[in-house]
């Protein structure tokens, strides 16, 4: 049963399952987007249905909103919640300082707004997302459709002036059309290879006309729950370092996992 899922799926699952333990009754919870976040939403749904957990969720995309409703989580908007106790989301890369690249799933704008509006952000990720230096994963930048080619050219010029290693940028596509975000924008993926100064790059990008937001999450994440393909989980805390090693009691006993793996 569980053997039919790939090690990466198992790693994502155990990270999400462990992170769900941080969600308490009455919390307003930001719900991330992506395949790892989907495991989290399903786990929380199970806790709502079977344990009577009472939470209100603020989804970071229409996809997550739909899944949250399907699994029984009460969905509210960020404007209704105003402020959140906790956001749990996936990431494309995380480094030792818990800085992130996000936006591989195209939801970086809502994800950053929601994470920033939260007392605490927990990232759930398989160990493959850990990097020494951010940047191997193309950095997503959300741009408005008007004049996107000009914005792209400005970004490429800026990358040259900042001496960034990789300078090519591509418009994200959905089939033969530009990808459109929930906000009606496009995404440029910046193939940088290595981001020396993420803080500076994030600031410079967001000052450019046409740029709405970038996928660098600097000083936003408080904790990363890391999953391994063999079911182990590790917790890295921004202040205390690694606070939990090698816990692996999630896989075999879990109904949700075996039901989905069937
Ligand atoms: O930033 C994101 C979506 O915009 C996702 O969290 C990120 O792409 C990770 O996705 P996955 O959990 O599917 O690997």
UniProtKB/TrEMBL annotation:
Do you know which PANTHER family this protein is assigned to? Answer: RIBOSE-5-PHOSPHATE ISOMERASE
Share what the entry says about its subunit structure, partners included. Homodimer.
**Where along the chain is substrate bound?**
33-36, 89-92, 102-105, 129
Instruction: State which residue ranges cross the membrane.
Output: none
Keyword Isomerase in record: yes
Query: Tell me, which GO biological process terms does this entry list?
Result: D-ribose metabolic process; pentose-phosphate shunt, non-oxidative branch
Which species does the entry assign this protein to? Pseudooceanicola lipolyticus
Designated name of the protein: Ribose-5-phosphate isomerase A
Similarity comment: family membership = Belongs to the ribose 5-phosphate isomerase family.
List the catalytic activities from the record: aldehydo-D-ribose 5-phosphate = D-ribulose 5-phosphate
Task of the protein: Catalyzes the reversible conversion of ribose-5-phosphate to ribulose 5-phosphate.
- GO molecular function annotations of the record: ribose-5-phosphate isomerase activity
GO annotations of cellular component type: cytosol
């Amino acid at each position: 049963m569980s053997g039919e899922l790939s090690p990466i799926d198992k790693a994502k699952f155990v990270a999400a399952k462990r992170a769900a333990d941080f969600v308490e009754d009455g919390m307003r919870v930001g719900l991330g987007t992506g395949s790892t976040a989907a495991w989290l939403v399903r786990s929380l749904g199970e806790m709502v249905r079977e344990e009577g957990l009472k939470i209100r969720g603020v989804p970071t995309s229409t996809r997550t909103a739909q899944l949250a409703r399907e699994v029984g989580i009460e969905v509210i908007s960020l404007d209704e919640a105003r402020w959140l106790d906790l956001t749990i989301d996936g990431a494309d890369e995380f480094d030792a300082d818990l800085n992130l690249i996000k936006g591989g799933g195209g939801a970086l704008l809502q994800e950053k707004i929601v994470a920033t509006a939260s007392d605490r952000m927990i990232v759930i990720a398989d160990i493959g997302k850990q990097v020494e230096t951010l940047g191997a994963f193309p950095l997503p930048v959300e741009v408005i459709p008007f004049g996107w080619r000009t914005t792209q050219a400005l970004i490429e010029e800026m990358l040259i002036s900042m001496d960034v290693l990789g300078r090519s940028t591509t418009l994200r596509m959905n089939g033969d059309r530009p990808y459109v975000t929930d906000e009606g924008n496009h995404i440029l993926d910046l193939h940088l290879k290595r981001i020396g100064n993420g803080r500076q790059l994030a600031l410079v990008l967001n000052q450019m006309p046409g740029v709405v937001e970038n996928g660098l999450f600097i000083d936003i994440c408080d904790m990363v729950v890391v999953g391994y393909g063999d079911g182990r989980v590790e917790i890295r805390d921004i202040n205390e370092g690694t606070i939990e090693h090698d816990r692996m009691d999630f896989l075999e006993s879990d109904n949700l996992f075996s039901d989905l793996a069937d």
